[in-house]
Amino acid sequence: MSMTLALTTGPVRQVTRRAVQVAITLFGLLLLTFFIGRVMPIDPVLAIVGPDADHSTYQQVYHQLGLDKPLWTQFFIYLNGLAHGDLGNALLTGKPVLDDILRVFPATLELATVAIIVGAGLGIPLGVLAASRRNSLADYIVRIISLAGYSTPIFWVGMMGLLVFYAWLGWVGGAGRLDFGLDGVVPRHTGLMTVDALLAGNGQVFMNALKHLVLPASLLGFHSLAYISRMTRSFMLAQLSQEFIITARVKGLSVRHVLWHHAFRNILVQLLTVVALAYGGLLEGAVLIETVFSWPGFGSYLTGSLLLGDMNAVMGCVLLVGVIFVMLNLLSDMLYQCFDPRTKS
Fold first, then answer.
1. Fewest CB within a 10 Å sphere: which of 155, 210, 251, 313?
2. Within 10 Å of residue 54's Cβ, how many Cβ atoms?
3. What are the UniProt keywords, alphabetically (predicted)?
């Protein structure tokens, strides 16, 4: 009886503790963002009424926004609305912030997902290759690629990519997610342009969306590839210096078997964290690529809201970013138990 009770209360206690940690993290994130936003030298009232409005109009809007109330009162009013699913209205569009986020986030999700597939799909094998041939030509090439991905400004790479592959060669699409004449042809279901085109059975829109997606996603993928390949190389070098690897080689196991079935399996847990953090960074940090390619995504929306001083939109975006990173960490913890049974204890 006592053992059964322990088995049932253990997972419940773990879930409860994790839920409390998530709630405290998000509350602290909202609190910090709210008060930083209120002390920023940006006046949201002027963004609404304009610099030529008279004093009475200014005071009326100032009162309607609740800016005449104490900061703590404003914060708890916002939390009360958040508890009822209300993130407020955006000054930039005049629409509910939640509707705006649901409209722009799928574009960034599509871009970041393809980018992390490119980054992890190429970065991990390159990192393993570099570690297995340390100080060889292949290792030096991978390290140069990694250094170039770190040091080259992403906005410059984006502009050069547009110049070469779009303007000169014509291999890819230009700015935006679609050509002008194809915008709005397929109905919006998921917000992912390639998926919506497939659901509608429109091959022309799918190929056009793919042509517009491949270049910005590849450039973002190259940026994440540099980080992932470097971390993979470091993890693999640490494993290849262990005694059990030397023992496996002495027993006559092939190099490929030792690399992938012994050394690589031991770094899977670490790589999960690296890839998850890289994916989260792509979801909230693709603003430069979105600006260069006129990509109507989450990063562009957040930047415009910050410049306008639209704290409702900024708070909604910050909350989404916090939820993304928390959920990615939770997913990583769950996958840990699949790849490393020792973490179950």
1. 251
2. 9
3. Cell inner membrane, Cell membrane, Membrane, Transmembrane, Transmembrane helix, Transport
